[in-house]
Amino acid sequence: MALTVDALLCPQNHRCPLIPICPAGAISQEGNSLPRIDPGKCIECGKCVKRCGMQAVYKAKEHGQTL
Ligand code: SF4
């Protein structure tokens, strides 16, 4: 199951603080744009989901979507 970042919840105006806490190095960001989670690297530990202050990271299935 893939994790993704909700573009409506993420303000996209700062460096994502989740990048350094991801143990798999799965989160990347161009400038202050919407962070991207690489499904090939993510081990689904859930740290980013818990730590995002905007609660912008979610499992796609929870929104009824598939990636
Ligand atoms: S769930 Fe864990 S491994 Fe996956 S992107 Fe979030 S912090 Fe990184």
List the helices and strands and how they pair.
Elements: E1 3-5, E2 27-28, E3 36-37, H1 47-51, E4 57-59
Antiparallel strand pairs: 1-4, 2-3
The structure holds iron/sulfur cluster.
The site of iron/sulfur cluster has 14 residues, from helix 1.
InterPro entries: 4Fe4S_Fe-S-bd, 4Fe4S_Fe_S_CS
Keywords: Iron, Iron-sulfur, Metal-binding
Domain 4Fe-4S ferredoxin-type: 33-62
User: H/E series, N to C?
Assistant: EEEHE
Strand content: 5-15%
From the 3D coordinates, which CATH architecture of the domain at 3-48 would you assign?
Answer: 2-Layer Sandwich
- Any ligands, ions or cofactors bound here, and which? iron/sulfur cluster
Beta strand count: 4
Q: What integer value in Å does the Rg equal?
A: 11 Å
In the predicted model, the low-confidence regions spanning at least 5 consecutive residues are none
Strand pairing plus helix content: what structural class?
mainly beta
Main sheet specs:
2 strands, antiparallel
CATH fold annotation of the domain at 3-48: Alpha-Beta Plaits
Helix content: under 10%
Give structural notes.
It comes from Alistipes shahii WAL 8301. GO terms for molecular function: iron-sulfur cluster binding; metal ion binding. The protein is mainly β. The protein is 7% helix and 15% strand. It is built from one helix and four strands, in the order βββαβ. The protein has a two-stranded antiparallel ribbon with strand order 1-4. The protein is globular and about 25 Å long. The model has no long low-confidence stretch (mean pLDDT 91). The structure holds iron/sulfur cluster (SF4). The site of iron/sulfur cluster has 14 residues, from helix 1.
